[in-house]
């Protein structure tokens, strides 16, 4: 079949997980629940950090950025999927597909870079505790986040521009629940060598590089903890980075699992199911990992809700006061 110019392709079809009508309400309910839990849980983390002055530290600054990022990350793909299920329409426009792809790559890259910055923060906190506040000053923290944004924007912009050069045949079915770059490239009828080269090169550079940085930071952390004489000091040092280590393991572990399962089965459908782990499940679990293992977060949330409950009670009493006075008279 002769390829047609991409300007003639106005839409794609997202096949999703299943075409069986009886499964659609179940899929809709499961993903809506996970999305609401993700948004609500990460908003609680942001609320706890912003409301408690004791949590205005570099570690919690990066954590609140990660929580906000997870909300944006899932919001890039889940709402569109829920709308498609509800309306029984799997179509996404060409512009919508490119836009979704751009923001997905942007927020995924930010996730990778931010986890690397958080590993460096834990390295400084454990290995250089006396100089921690001097090294991790507000200016450096802001600069690190800005660098993460710049690199992610450039990375996403590059892939989006490369995607725009592709031309397609009439087969516009994407065997996924969102516009995933690799599946998008596979649909193209034009030469995709340059796209695949850029895809694999940037994956090694911008995913493997940060992962190597995380491994290096934790190798130094393990070395510092091993050199501590006090067992209590070792436990305290390890507990400060246990939550971050859990999230890193979950994030990279699920990504590795997705691509290994896809390579083993050669099935795009199984890859779509496996990708739910890092696109939906990981952002949903992050707030639980940090809140369940972190006394400061739990205390901040408890204080916030007690304060809000007290304020609400005071307002209610003031509203009831005129009525009570008229009854007394």
TrEMBL record:
TM annotation in the entry: 26-48, 60-79, 91-120, 140-158, 198-216, 237-260, 272-292
Any single GO CC term annotated in Swiss-Prot or TrEMBL for this entry: plasma membrane
Positions of the G-protein coupled receptors family 1 profile domain: 41-290
One Pfam family hit: 7tm_4
Gene Ontology terms for molecular function: G protein-coupled receptor activity; olfactory receptor activity
Predominant cellular place of this UniProt entry's protein: membrane
Alphabetical UniProt keywords: Cell membrane, G-protein coupled receptor, Membrane, Olfaction, Receptor, Sensory transduction, Transducer, Transmembrane, Transmembrane helix
Superkingdom per UniProt: Eukaryota
Membrane topology: Multi-pass membrane protein
Protein family membership: Belongs to the G-protein coupled receptor 1 family.
Protein's job: Putative odorant or sperm cell receptor.
Protein name: Olfactory receptor
Organism: Myotis brandtii
């Amino acid at each position: 079949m002769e390829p047609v110019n991409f300007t003639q392709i106005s839409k794609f079809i997202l096949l999703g997980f299943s075409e069986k009508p009886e499964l659609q309400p179940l899929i809709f309910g499961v993903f809506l629940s996970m999305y609401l839990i993700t948004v609500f849980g990460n908003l609680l983390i942001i609320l706890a950090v912003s409301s408690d002055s004791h949590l205005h530290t570099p570690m919690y600054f990066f954590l609140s950025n990660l929580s906000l990022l997870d909300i944006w990350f899932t919001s890039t793909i889940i709402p569109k999927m829920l709308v498609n299920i509800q309306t029984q329409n799997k179509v996404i426009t060409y512009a919508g597909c490119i836009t979704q792809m751009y923001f997905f790559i942007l927020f995924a890259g930010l996730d990778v870079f931010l986890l690397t910055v958080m590993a460096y923060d834990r390295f400084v906190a454990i290995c250089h505790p006396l100089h921690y506040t001097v090294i991790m000053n507000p200016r450096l923290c802001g600069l690190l986040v800005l660098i993460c944004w710049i690199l992610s924007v450039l990375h996403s912009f590059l892939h989006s521009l490369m995607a725009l050069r592709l031309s397609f045949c009439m087969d516009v079915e994407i065997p996924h629940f969102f516009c995933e770059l690799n599946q998008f490239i596979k649909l193209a009828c034009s030469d995709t060598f340059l796209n695949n080269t850029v895809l694999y090169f940037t994956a090694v550079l911008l995913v493997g590089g940060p992962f190597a940085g995380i491994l290096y930071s934790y190798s130094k952390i393990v070395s510092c903890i091993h050199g501590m004489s006090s067992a209590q000091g070792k436990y305290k040092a390890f507990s400060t980075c246990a939550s971050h280590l859990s999230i890193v393991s979950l994030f990279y572990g699920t990504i590795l699992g997705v691509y290994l399962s896809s390579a083993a089965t050669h099935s795009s459908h199984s890859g779509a199911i496996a990708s739910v782990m890092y696109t939906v499940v990981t952002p949903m679990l992050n707030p639980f990992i940090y809140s369940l293992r972190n006394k400061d977060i739990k205390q901040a949330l408890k204080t916030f809700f007690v304060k809000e409950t007290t304020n609400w009670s005071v307002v209610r009493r003031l509203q009831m006061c005129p009525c009570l006075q008229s009854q007394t008279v």
